[in-house]
From TrEMBL:
GO terms for molecular function: DNA binding; sigma factor activity. Pfam families: Sigma70_r2 (PF04542), Sigma70_r4_2 (PF08281). It comes from the Bacteria. Residues 9-75 form the RNA polymerase sigma-70 region domain. PROSITE patterns: SIGMA70_ECF. One of its GO terms (biological process) is DNA-templated transcription initiation. Keywords: DNA-binding, Sigma factor, Transcription, Transcription regulation. Belongs to the sigma-70 factor family. ECF subfamily. This is RNA polymerase sigma factor. Residues 122-162 form the RNA polymerase sigma factor 70 region 4 type domain. CDD domains: Sigma70_r4. InterPro entries: RNA_pol_sigma-70-like (IPR039425), RNA_pol_sigma-70_dom (IPR014284), RNA_pol_sigma70_ECF_CS (IPR000838), RNA_pol_sigma70_r2 (IPR007627), RNA_pol_sigma70_r4_t2 (IPR013249), RNA_pol_sigma_r2 (IPR013325), RNA_pol_sigma_r3/r4-like (IPR013324), WH-like_DNA-bd_sf (IPR036388).
Amino acid sequence: MNDSVFHRIYDSYHQDLFQFLIYLVQNRQVAEDLTQEVYIRVLRSYDSFQGNSSEKTWLFSIAKNVAIDHFRKQNVRKKRVFDSFDWEAIQLTSPDMRPEDVVQLDDEKSQLLHYLNLCTGDQKMVIVLRYFQQLSIQETASALGWTESKVKTTQHRAIAHLKKLMSKVREGEMIYDK
């Protein structure tokens, strides 16, 4: 891969890629690290890119796999944490977004992010790719390695779940905490 190809990919897709990862992990520093990992994988594997999908779809597919790897590593670490955790030496940190990050989001996006966290991981990925990154159903299916039918079904269920949560808040059955 030559420098001009890498710079073109970076310039064209960096913002979308970073937003996708930050929506998934909800931590700016982790999203930055994962974005860097995506670019490392792109550099290593660009020569094997066959063009069966668009570069953007291919890039999001790599990003999805990097995020999944991150969450798997987190789960393994969480399982081992009580065996080796030094309660006196290590500070406990919250997995939630930092307050300054949430303030930057407008209220509507903040509320939607809150509700997205109550969806399944698959539902969250589909909503982020379809509505935040504006990928088509075909591009989303390609990025996730799914059929178009599975994307449509997951999207439908996610939207129904989000509507249900929002109506509960409107009816006072559930409280939205910022």
